[in-house]
Amino acid sequence: MRNSEADAVIGDQKREASCYEAHQKDAPAIRDVLARIGDKWSLLIIVTLKEGKLRFSELHERIPGVSQRMLTRTLRHLERDGLVDRRVHAQVPPRVDYTLTERGRTLIDPALALATWSIAHFEGIQAARTAYDSPTVGGD
Predict the structure, then answer these.
(1) Neighbours of 97 (CB within 10 A)
(2) What pLDDT, in 10s, does the model give residues 40-75?
(3) Beta strands in 1-140, from DSSP E residues, in sequence order
(4) Are residues 31 and 79 in the same domain?
(5) Are residues 31 and 44 part of one domain?
(6) What is the pLDDT of residues 113-130, one digit of tens each?
(7) Partners of 54 in the beta sheet?
(8) Cα angle, residue 24 at apex, residues 44 and 84 outer, rounded to 5°
(9) Do 49 and 98 have their domain in common?
C-alpha cells in the first residue's frame, strides 16, 4: 500500500471514530427528538402543515384516523418543541390556526423522505414480519 493510500485509510478510520464519538455524546438528544417527531402522528401533521396555515378541523379532516384528543396532544407537543405555531383569533366562535415554525419547516424534506421510504418499503416490511412471525417448517 502506498503512503497516500495508507493516509487515506487512516483518515477514514479517524472520521469514523469521530462520528461514533459524536453519536455517543449526542445520543440522548437524538433519542429525545426522534421520540417526538417519530411518534405516530407528528410527521403526518408536519407534512400536512407544509401547505401553510390550517385550522384544527382542517387538520383533523386531512389526517385519517387521528382522534381529536390525539391531534390536540400532538399539536401541543409540537408547539412546545417550537415546531408548530398556534394562533388564536379573538372572534366568535374562536378560530385557531396552526402553522409550521421556521424550525418546523426544516423537517418537511426529511419527513417527506421518510414517508416516501415507508410507502416504498411497506409491502416488503409486511412480508418480512409475516415470515418472521410464522412457524418454521420442520420446527426448530
Answers:
(1) 16
(2) 899 999 999 998 999 999 999 999 999 999 999 999
(3) 54-55, 84-89, 95-100
(4) no
(5) no
(6) 988 999 999 999 999 999
(7) 98
(8) 25
(9) yes
